[in-house]
Amino acid sequence: MPLDSRIDEITDRIRERSRDSRDGYLKRMRAQAEQGPRRAHLDCGNQAHAYAAMQDQKGDLAADRVPNIGIVTAYNDMLSAHQPYGTYPDRIKAAAREAGATAQVAGGVPAMCDGVTQGQAGMELSLFSRDVIALAAGVALSHDTFDAALYLGICDKIVPGLVIAAATFGYLPGIFVPAGPMPSGLPNEEKARIRREFAEGKIGRDKLMEAEMASYHGPGTCTFYGTANSNQMLMEFMGLHLPGASFVNPDTPLRDALTDAAVVRASEMTGLGNAYNPVCDILDERAYVNGLVGLMATGGSTNLVLHLIAMARASGVQLTCADFDAVSEATPLMARVYPNGLADVNHFHAAGGLPFMIGHLLEAGLLHEDVRTVAGGGLSAYATEPKLDGDRVKWEPGPRETQNDRILNTPENGFAKTGGLKQVRGNLGIGVMKISAVAEELQHIEAPARVFHDQAAVKEAFRAGELNRDVVVVVRYQGPRANGMPELHALTPLLSVLLSRGHKVALVTDGRMSGASGKVPAAIHVAPEALLDGLIAKVQDGDIVRVDAANGKLEVLNEGVAEREIVHPDLTGNEMGLGRELFSLFRATAGRSDRGAGVVI
Length: 601
Prior knowledge:
Blueprint: H1 5-17, H2 19-33, H3 44-51, H4 58-62, E1 68-73, H5 88-98, E2 102-108, H6 114-117, H7 126-141, E3 148-152, H8 158-168, E4 174-176, H9 188-199, H10 205-215, H11 227-237, H12 253-268, H13 279-282, H14 285-298, H15 303-314, H16 321-330, H17 345-350, H18 353-363, E5 384-389, E6 392-397, E7 421-426, E8 429-434, E9 444-452, H19 455-463, E10 471-475, H20 480-483, H21 492-500, E11 505-509, E12 522-527, E13 544-548, E14 553-556, H22 584-589
Parallel strand pairs: 1-2, 1-3, 3-4, 9-10, 10-11, 11-12
Antiparallel strand pairs: 5-6, 7-8, 8-12, 9-13, 13-14
Helix pairs in contact: 1-16, 5-12, 7-8, 8-15, 9-10, 9-21, 11-14, 14-16
């Protein structure tokens, strides 16, 4: 199927806009690649330190006879998604030896859990952890002894940070190795109901705790379609996973076989052989457009709007918020996965999952097939699914028919004609809305503003009954410069209660919402943020605010707002405690949210 003209035009615009930065990036990568095997440039003393613990493989490493694979791991056993990675290094080393290669843990990167820090002060470090991860991975790979890398990470900021690092070391081949989602627990809609009842005071904390523990109950990624699982989707659409690797449960024979296969493939792609396949050649403008299509077709996380812009810049590609909007207009919504539906990612995977989706999007001309991937060849390899052949993996054609058309459907029979995200803009600035879970009649609201400077104040007003009306809740001073741009997901149950009472409600903020953003219309990531004198800083209680997803509008309708004087609140409380004092430089130098909110790139 020929490429859809709209996708072609979007890609051309990105390519032209990125010409100089992409050319400069590739020139740097080619210069690094031309130096040959990395270890050859180390002095004998350098190499001796690097190989001291490698026992009987020292000679092969010193002679540059075998590929050496660096493992960059985000393992910790506090994150359920990353707990399975504890056993991966030994497995990878054994698989590398069998493949005629060596492997070493190059280094670890931090991995914080947004589920633990939601509504807490620690969430103010969350976005910046992406840049810390990129920096830490850079330190790990700076030893310059590796011919390829395996990146072990799944969750919210971890994959984007690792991609930034992989792009920075783009002359190295690299594969992202997932660990899979936990088995299904308490249905997501039941969990949401219990959260609403707790917010209304109808049940106690004991019942809430019981429901939460039944939802998050074992090793693996959380099963709703939030940022973590959006990351996994993205790695397949962009060709950095092996095909079909994303949603295979942990600690299963197929999961183990996929990990072994990633090691074999990494050893084949190095510059020591004839199939050199560096990350820099995979991460071009076509790969990012494919990622955008996947994001829109699945109704994925709003956090990826920030992360994709930052990831792309690391590989010389210049994305803008307008690109997301244009791709969304061209891409039908093909999946209904919680919070956009009742199903979780295990149900999505069983219904046909990513192989079904990628195959149909290719047939519809909505994806670039002619891209480089870690699997070799084009994106059509990702329309296949992995099966066990003994203890090894083989790939067979993916499903052509959905197993549940309430969860997954073809582009022609999609759940909406356009994708799950929408850009909104106006005198309040530029923002983004996730509309895949928002009823159409709720996507336009004009109502008086109620202005807050933190989540706690919103909760107090809710408990006092002050929000029982049509209202646009404005929560400002939540941007990267103000306090690190925390997620405001703790507000979702409260605002959902107001919706259930028949009120028209919207949220407008320069902060973030969770990847699990649901049915409440929310214009988020508003830029410029309040601390940078964006107009959101001048909005007052009672001003009429328009949030209109259908027409892409975000406006305050009162006259004279722009002439008001800004008096910034005291934000010193954001500067201390739980390590926030260590991140003052990050807050001071963070970029705008519509440019990725980064401090590294």
